[in-house]
Amino acid sequence: MSNGVKLSLSEVSQLASDSLIAQGFSAPQAHAISATVSAAERDGSTSHGLFRIPFYVNALKNPNTDATATPVVDFPKPAVVRVDACNGFCPLALQTGLPELSRLAKQQGIAALAINNGYNIAALWPEVEHLAEDGLVAMAFTCASSYVAPAGGNKPLFGTNPMAFAWPRKDKPPLVFDQASSVCARGEIQLHLRDGKAIPEGWAIDKHGEPTTDAAAALEGSQLTFGGYKGSSIALMIELLAGALIGDLFSYESTEKDTAGTGAPFGGEFVLAIDPGTFNADGGHFAHAEQLFEQLLSQEGTRLPGGKRHRTRQQQSDIVIPESLHTTLLELCR
Amino acid sequence: MSNGVKLSLSEVSQLASDSLIAQGFSAPQAHAISATVSAAERDGSTSHGLFRIPFYVNALKNPNTDATATPVVDFPKPAVVRVDACNGFCPLALQTGLPELSRLAKQQGIAALAINNGYNIAALWPEVEHLAEDGLVAMAFTCASSYVAPAGGNKPLFGTNPMAFAWPRKDKPPLVFDQASSVCARGEIQLHLRDGKAIPEGWAIDKHGEPTTDAAAALEGSQLTFGGYKGSSIALMIELLAGALIGDLFSYESTEKDTAGTGAPFGGEFVLAIDPGTFNADGGHFAHAEQLFEQLLSQEGTRLPGGKRHRTRQQQSDIVIPESLHTTLLELCR
Fold it and tell me: Could you tell me if residue B202 is left (phi over 0), alpha (psi between -120 and 50 degrees) or otherwise beta?
């Protein structure tokens, strides 16, 4: 990349923390966000890296946001931990809740973590990957802002509602996927708009509910779910799990509450962890799963989800970010 | 339907039980299967109704199948119940395990049921619907026979791997979906073959890995996952949950074990149940979810998953089955 600024991973982390703290985030909130941003940069997942810092800062325009909140933990049932993010950001709430979730899952066989009242601008893969590094199978679900039409419908109702899954592997990074229920990420449409390119058919409808390949019309209209009504059922399930089940907001309610138009999704996250040792006292699940992965990879043209991120992690020595982003972050540090 | 035989629901149930018992199934195995078959006929879900009885009988050609097995229950961890179907059929294993799963979910907040070593020819919606009728949120996953290519691949690896979800409603049947990870059910391709019709593009590839609209070539080749690589990730997740996690078979292993070619999937099923009361002591989740459903249905062209089945349940008085199927079942009763 020309016009880029080279940074080491610790410089990325420092820059993220410094800019957040300078903008009024407490040190624990800033460090937790910085950790997820650094993990994304480490893995080449640019759209969840330093690029996100201005979005976190922008979320403070909403007068309800508390950048210094201390999450509150409780245990409503023996296999459930709940963390109230108290209008702060999800990374710190997750940092607080994940060790408890791990402990409960190993004790009970399966356990759940509910995060409430949090701003969630991050990807979901860091939390499921973290749990799988601890030997657990994990799933995570969250709503978002209301951008996606239900199957057959003509206006936004669902968020891009991601679902993440991780499976632990021996001596290898976990298998991880983290996928939106929409065909594409909202950012992909924004990139097409910026580059003056048409979007593929099937990504979106315009504000009248008609199919469109115009990026601007798509952003004014609705994104579509992947796989038609099947993806729509999954988006609905995620609204119910991360919304009504845990007593938190649906995507459309999050959007309604965002009166300052920050675009930062507010609400809940639902995370599950299961201990495979419950069923495999000898750890046989590790080798068994590897047989499936071998079978899959023996077919030319296939790949394991998350593999690209892990290859980048191994191969990338320096992180390069655009000069313009670097300048923005330095300004935030003042 | 002309040439049909009219049956009451109790006659459906009796005919199913009688034919299975006459073919060597124990009364408990036969009655549990009969209950799922009757529920399907009641809801107009013909493909999982009496039509399935000959498939159950055919599964006995596999010398490992035990039509008189008594499931064995254990509790490996406080929030987990495991039922060994002992080479019998899943309906009886589920009937044995579901009350325990309900009890644990209410006690622990979340719980899991693993079924092992079972033949699973039934749909998954009856178990999640049953749990939701008991006030719980439920999910179920199972592998199948190896018919589906992974994204980018060219031959079968995954099963049609369904995932089911149910949400409890007050004074209404639960919201339920039960969807394959493949674009379509295998039976839909078989119906196109029978009727001499081409299948839509995107359903399948032939044995050389090339796209095909020929139903016979599709059945010899591979079905495709819904939504491309996203559906493929879900199919992979289901293999891991219902296979390696609970110490049971992957779809391709089930197919390899089916040396008699019965086509009856053998292996595990993984069921989750979550008590929404854990997070909503006042039952507020009911009304909250209804607001989402209203928002969804206010968009013309949308529907709630499972709605058609529940409407049929209310409206259908008599069940009509083809004369040929009726004759087959009477022959099985002899």
Answer: left
Residue B2 clears pLDDT 70, i.e. is over it: no
Nearest CB to B245 within list A107, A276, A302: A276
Cβ <8 Å between A109 and B76:
yes
pLDDT tens, A11-45?
999 999 999 999 999 999 999 999 999 999 999 99
CATH class of B71-182+225-305: alpha beta
- Cα nearest neighbour of B272 on chain A: A110
Backbone angles phi, psi at B113, to 5 degrees: -120, 125
Joined together, the tokens standing for residue A124 give 């979901």
Residue from the list A245, A280, A289 with its beta carbon closest to the beta carbon of B274: A245
Question: Strands, DSSP E only, in chain B?
Answer: 4-7, 72-77, 80-84, 110-119, 137-142, 163-167, 175-179, 204-205, 211-212, 222-223, 266-274, 319-322
The alpha carbons of chain A give a radius of gyration, in whole angstroms, of 20
Give every residue of chain A whose pLDDT is below 70, as ranges: 1-2
Parallel, antiparallel or unpaired: strands B110-119 and B80-84? parallel
Task: Tell if the CB–CB gap between B154 and A179 is shorter than 8 Å.
Answer: no
- B262 to chain A, minimum CA–CA distance in Å? 23
> One of A41, A127, A129, A188 is an active-site residue; which one?
A188
Subunit contact A79:B110, Cβ cutoff 8 A: yes
Q: For residue range B66-111, what is the model confidence (pLDDT) as tens digits?
A: 999 999 999 999 999 999 999 999 999 999 999 999 999 999 999 9
A289: nearest CA partner in chain B? B244
Torsions phi, psi for A204 (to 5 deg) = -160, 165
Nearest to B116 by CA among B247, B235, B26, B237: B247
Q: Are A165 and A138 in contact (CB under 8 A)?
A: yes
Token pair listed for A159:
């968020």
CATH of domain A70-182+225-305: 3.30.1370.60
Tell me whether residue A285 is one of the annotated catalytic residues. no
- CA B141 to the chain's CA centroid: 9
For residue B11, the distance in angstroms to the closest alpha carbon of chain A comes to: 34
pTM over 0.95? The answer is yes
Q: Which residues of B touch A80 (CB under 8 A)?
A: 108-110, 278
Please name the residue that has the structure tokens 């077919």. Answer: A299
